[in-house]
Amino acid sequence: MPGIFISYRRDDQAGFAGRLADALEATFGADNVFRDIEDIHPGEDFVVAIEKNLAAVDVMLVLIGPAWLSVSRNSLRRLDEPDDFVRREIEAGLNSGKVVLPVLVGGAAMPAENDLPPSIRALARRQSLVLTDAGWSADLARLIAAVAPKVPVARPRTGRRGMVWGGLTVLAAALLVVGLNRFGPKQAADAAKPVAVAPAQNFSGRWLATVNYDWGAEHVEKIDLQVDKGELHGTAGYLGVARTIEQGTVSGEQLGFVTHSQEVAGDGPAREVTHRYRGALKVGELHLVLESGGGLSAHTPVSFVARRADGA
């Protein structure tokens, strides 16, 4: 069962949740990290699944972005609704007596006690951690150092991506974080790198997908992929425009990559949007999840299937 539960609101910094989940899975293993978009299967009771996984974890991370407090529905703040899933997750985490760590993202500030419903005001008294784009590596290292002692390293590290991560991975990360520089910089960096896993399938070629975006637009997108020594390169269409793939990785039948676009409202300045894609090759099809964040509006994750173009 998962050792880390990531609580987040989809209307507030969902992209950070995906990015953090990737990083934690690389250290603790995918089976030890729970996030609803991937870990709840179609037809499964959402509430039962969350409560089951929450009962099994050692640490809860509560991601708080700029809109976390204010997201509303029908003129009522979501957090004030007794059946709000985020509120219920935090209530269960606090009542369990387990470690609950607020993680501030997107420049958010820690909420004051009076800003929270009485049932979760204890969250405001928990020491928070900060994750920023500019200081991502250092911030993530501090978070891993805080979490590592709470998550048993003896658990199996076989994850959805076919990776196997042992206690040595966690130990290497912790040593780098606390600054135990017994080895030189190059040796330490080499030791922290995960062992590459050769792709089990060939992702290279052109793929086509009909994507229904969360605001109702529909586009046929082209995804051109090339795999070179475990790294993924190429372009992925967003709103019909090819975007350069960055941070592309392949492990077994799993892949992930990032693209960027610009979002503009009226005559105001443009804001960069980060698009994070994660997916798997299943029976010759690419099953992908797209999370977008950082722009002028919040986006919910989008799932779609890409198929090989004729002759690709």
Q: How would you describe what is shown here?
A:
With 312 residues, the protein is an alpha+beta fold. It is built from seven helices and 16 strands. Helix content is 24%, strand content 32%. An eight-stranded antiparallel beta barrel has the order 8-9-10-12-13-14-15-16. A five-stranded parallel β-sheet has the order 2-1-3-6-7, with helices on both faces. The chain has two domains: 4-192, Rossmann fold, CATH 3.40.50.10140; 205-308, Lipocalin (Beta Barrel), CATH 2.40.128. The model is unreliable at 154-200 (pLDDT under 50).
- Overall CATH class of the largest domain: Alpha Beta
Number of domains: 2
Total DSSP E strands? 16
Summarize the amount of helix as a percent range: 10-25%
Q: Enumerate the spans where pLDDT stays under 50 for 5 or more consecutive residues.
A: 154-200
Shape: globular
Q: Which fold name is given in CATH as the topology of the largest domain?
A: Rossmann fold
Give the strand content.
25-35%
The CATH architecture of the largest domain can be named as 3-Layer(aba) Sandwich
Can you write the helix and strand succession as a string?
A: EHEHHEEEHEEHHHEEEEEEEEE
Q: Mean pLDDT, nearest integer?
A: 78
Radius of gyration: 20 Å
Structural class: alpha+beta
The name of the CATH superfamily of the largest domain reads Toll/interleukin-1 receptor homology (TIR) domain
The first-to-last residue Cα distance is: 40 Å
The major sheet is characterized as: 8 strands, antiparallel, barrel
Strand line-up of the largest beta sheet: 8-9-10-12-13-14-15-16
